[in-house]
Amino acid sequence: MAFAPVSSLVVDDLPKFFSMMYHQLINQAIYTFAELGIADRLINVPLDRGFTVEEIIGDNKLQWNRDLLYRILRACIYSGIIETINDGKHFILTTSGIMMMSDHPSHVRDFIRFSFGPLCTRASLHLPNMVRREGTGTGIARVSDGKDFYTLMSQPDQEEFLKIFSGSMTIFSMQNGSQLITTIDFGRFKTIVDIGGNRGTFLAQLLERYPSSKHGIIFDLSHIVNKF
Question: According to the UniProt entry, what is the EC number of this protein (predicted)?
Fold first, then answer.
């Protein structure tokens, strides 16, 4: 049986799809890095020596898979959050990697855990069914016993998820807030209400920029306002 030749267009496009797959694998490696708090374990490492996988794990009570962690760290190199030095088995944080510390003001770790975490990942897998109108509810509702997103966050057993989501929203405020503040003249308003303002990151930026605005009010759900 003779096979038709593959056109150059198809061949040229194949790397695009391989790239999509590789990026997905790297995303999951970054999520694992964030979820395990690896940046916190590397922050005080001497930059001229680095830590091996064994040193990163540290406590012998942690029965982590050393070989798998090593491969995950190697994948994280491609994202620019860590580097290897010496023999290629000692790891150090990059400037971007430092931002993934659990107490970094950028809340990058929260953003990664939310965006690539199990809830959003599982919810996105329902998109084909939602397009076909099979079943009811949003993607989140389909993986959380019918609860909508904000009802889910209000549950007593979801405090960690609420913290992660709140930190993620802080990133958006920091990233987009400066553009809004410089584009719109908020100084003409004496009182500004930020609806859905979360921790107040954007409102704080705004009031600092426009001291003529004397009052700022955060309006959000009670379990968010009372928590943060």
Answer: 2.1.1.4
What is the tally of structural domains in the chain? 2
> How do 191-195 and 90-93 pair as beta strands?
unpaired
Closest CA to 39 of 122, 126, 112, 135: 112
One domain for residues 87 and 170: no
Q: For 115-134, b where at least 16 C-beta lie within 10 A, e where not — what string?
A: bbbebeeebeebeeeeeeee
Three-class DSSP category at 56: helix
Those residues whose C-beta lies under 8 Å from the C-beta of residue 153, and which sit 6 or more positions away, are 161, 162, 165, 221, 223, 224
Lowest mean pLDDT among 3-12, 148-157, 171-180: 3-12
| Residue 154 domain-assigned (yes or no) | yes
Q: What is the pLDDT of residues 87-121, one digit of tens each?
A: 889 999 999 999 999 999 999 999 999 999 999 99
Domain containing 62 equals 8-102
The residue among 86, 38, 34 whose CA lies nearest residue 58 is 38
Record the pTM: 0.83
